[in-house]
Amino acid sequence: MRFQTVRTKTNIRRSAAHRFLETVGAEPDTDHRGLYEELTWRSPAAVDGDVLISRWVDRRSFRRYEKAVSPSDRHVIGVALKTTRLKFTRSAHIVFDGIMPAGTLHVTGPSQLLTAEFHAPCDFIHFHVSGDYLRKRQDAAGVGLTQPTPDLNDLIIRDPLAELLGRTLAETGNTRDGLYAESVGQTLVMHIARMELSQPTTSALPKWRLKRVQEYVNAHLDEALSLADLAAVAGLSRMYFAGQFRAATGYRPHDYLLYRRIESAKSILSSTDMPLTEVAFSVGFQAQAHFSTVFKRLTGQSPARWRRAIRSERQFPDTFVCPREKSDSPLKESVANEFGPGLCAAPEMGVLEAAPEVMRKGAAAKDTRFSSSQP
């Protein structure tokens, strides 16, 4: 296997790119032999070899947009290392809209334009895999002999092994080890090549029932809501409701409740000086400690830190041009022109409703368990 590791072309270019990333809030990585730092989302400076591994880290918490087209001969496998909130759109098709937990694996096929709308800090490892190499691994695994070769485009699943491989590469000091990175890439590609994808067996909750449930949740966030309450609003048994709700939204009902409570809390935190304890009670939590734990898990920040950050970001106008120093040097000016100015979306506090269709694949609901206790 040929495994490609890439460095930026010159130190001057890397320096300029780092200034740009730091200006808009992304966290630059150091130059690694096994893990390539993305200066543009999902778009390494050069893609060659069987597998290239890159990382995108962005600490910004306000709404911003990114887009990228996958190479014509490659699948891009993304692994979320951090729970985030985003919306993926391919052409007019919504691939995912909501909270993406850490450990979520997302595959984009060749020549696909993917647009991302981020609402929280994020951390992704991207594996850029050549189509020939993936097919060879599928052939080696016997895929296509006993069943049709699966279409991996838009695949979104929770995958503990993918998360473990990504964290092992990113967090244990192995990012500089090209051989170690090669083994991680090989393992993940073979793991995906051997997947037996099953079609969803549970129908999605009809839109009119979903809307009724969402409106009920929004109107009663400060109350104790159970699975039985939501199932009754939908007019279904608890078992059928839990499965159809997850097929329609990608959430278990309990997870959706937590998501809506935190979204409501964010609106209060950003617009008032209400103490954190009162915020917690007003959105249905019985203890500030539980509220703070869930808030940090879903946003990556504590409520107090998030409030300070969003208010600081609101000091900027609707859009701003990332500043850069002007120079009389033609070389410096050309480098600066290449990476800046950058237009950055300003903070917007609109709350998104969960889209009825957030997963094309892997949305089958098998776990209908739900805690009836107060979230």
- Structural class by secondary-structure content: alpha+beta
- Give the amount of beta strand, in percent: 15-25%
Classified in CATH, the superfamily of the largest domain is Regulatory protein AraC
Give, in spatial order, the strands making up the sheet with the most strands: 1-2-9-4-7-10
Task: Output the helix-strand order.
Answer: HEEEEEEEEEHEHHHHHHHHHEHE
CATH topology of the largest domain: Jelly Rolls
What is the domain tally? 2
| Share of helix, binned | 25-40%
CATH class of the largest domain: Mainly Beta
**Main sheet makeup:** 6 strands, mixed
Secondary structure tally: strands: 12
Q: Give the count of helical stretches.
A: 12
> What is the overall silhouette?
globular
For the termini, the CA-CA separation is 49 Å
In CATH, the architecture of the largest domain is Sandwich
Unreliably modeled segments: 1-32, 317-375
Write up what this structure looks like.
The protein is of the alpha+beta class and 375 residues long. The chain folds into 2 domains: 11-193, Regulatory protein AraC (Jelly Rolls, Sandwich), CATH 2.60.120.280; 207-313, Arc Repressor Mutant, subunit A. 38% of the residues lie in helices and 18% in strands. It is built from 12 helices and 12 strands. The chain has helices at 11-24, 131-140, 160-171, 178-193, 207-219, 227-234, 238-249, 253-271, 276-282, 288-299, 303-313, 330-339; strands spanning 36-37, 51-58, 64-69, 74-80, 84-90, 93-100, 104-108, 113-118, 122-130, 156-158, 319-321, 343-345. The strands form 3 sheets. The protein has a 6-stranded mixed beta sheet with strand order 1-2-9-4-7-10. Strands 3-8-5-6 form a 4-stranded antiparallel beta sheet, with no helix packed on it. A two-stranded antiparallel sheet has the order 11-12. Helix 1 (11-24) packs across helix 12 and helix 5 (207-219) crosses helix 6 (227-234). The N and C termini lie far apart (49 Å). The relative contact order is 0.15.
